[in-house]
Amino acid sequence: MRFILQIFAGFISIIFIIFISISAADANSRKIGPEDNNKKDEVSIAKIYFAGSVNGETAAELIEAIDDANINYKKLKRIYLYINSYGGGMEGGYAAYWAVKSSRTPVTTVNMGMVMSSASMIFCGAEDRQSLKGGHFILHAASVSVGNDYVQPDQLQRQVQRLDGYNAMFHDVYKECTKLSEQELTAMFQGENQRRFMLPDEARQTGLITKIADKIMDSSVSYFVTDTVKNTND
User: How many CB atoms lie within 10 A of CB 166?
Assistant: First the structure.
């Protein structure tokens, strides 16, 4: 009887692992596009929708989407990356920033509604940066979580070093993609009350965007990257 129970438990474990693997693969990314190789050769524009938190997983999926578009569509001329995100992890945002910046096919980033915090680094990876008419931008100083109510001096110092490193990331990115002065950047990193809230007109004046877009581009290839777990039972 015990042997039978062990076999059954092992079988259930295998099924559980397979289910988790399938769920994980489909949970946060999806692609719509032609499978026929002849039609792939006709694709000149690809779109990526990035909506949700910035973290290691969503950043990796965004990088995968950029690579997939570059590899599979030989005549691709432009990738439009539509962003709606309140930000999240700094490391993920910085990694995705370099992926956008380094893409073989030029990327145009577009603010679909909100670009905030670490998501602004992803946005700044492109030379051509746009916003839909109602888009909002929030640039602000980085933050870290101490975790406990009581910390030792060395623990606090390590968090200060992390914070300085994160703000250095922001500084280098914003210095390249905006016209904000060194004084304005330094002030912004002094605290949350110095955050910069921008609508498209101000974003264009500061150099954050180059154009106010009036539509979403049409394309036969679209990628969707979100942090919403998909229910496979639906």
Answer: 21
Q: Kindly report, residue by residue over 140-155, the tens digit of the pLDDT.
A: 999 887 776 787 888 8
Rounded to whole angstroms, what are the CA distances from 228 to 29, 53, 113, 133, 224?
9, 9, 18, 26, 11
Write out the two tokens for 29: 């990314």
Selection from 12, 63, 30, 16 nearest residue 230 by Cα: 30
Range of the domain at 172: 31-226
Q: Which residue has the tokens 């700044």?
A: 124
Model confidence, pTM: 0.83
Which amino acid, residue 224? F
pLDDT confidence of residue 229: 52
Supply 231's token pair: 């229910």
Bridge partners (DSSP) of residue 45 are: 78
The yes-or-no verdict on residue 29 having pLDDT over 90 is no
CATH number of the structural domain spanning residue 216: 3.90.226.10
User: Does the pLDDT of residue 8 top 80, yes or no?
Assistant: no
The predicted-structure confidence for 84-136, as pLDDT tens digits, reads as follows 999 999 999 999 999 999 999 999 999 999 999 999 999 999 999 999 999 99
- Residue 15 in domain: no
Task: At 4, list the tokens.
Answer: 């039978």
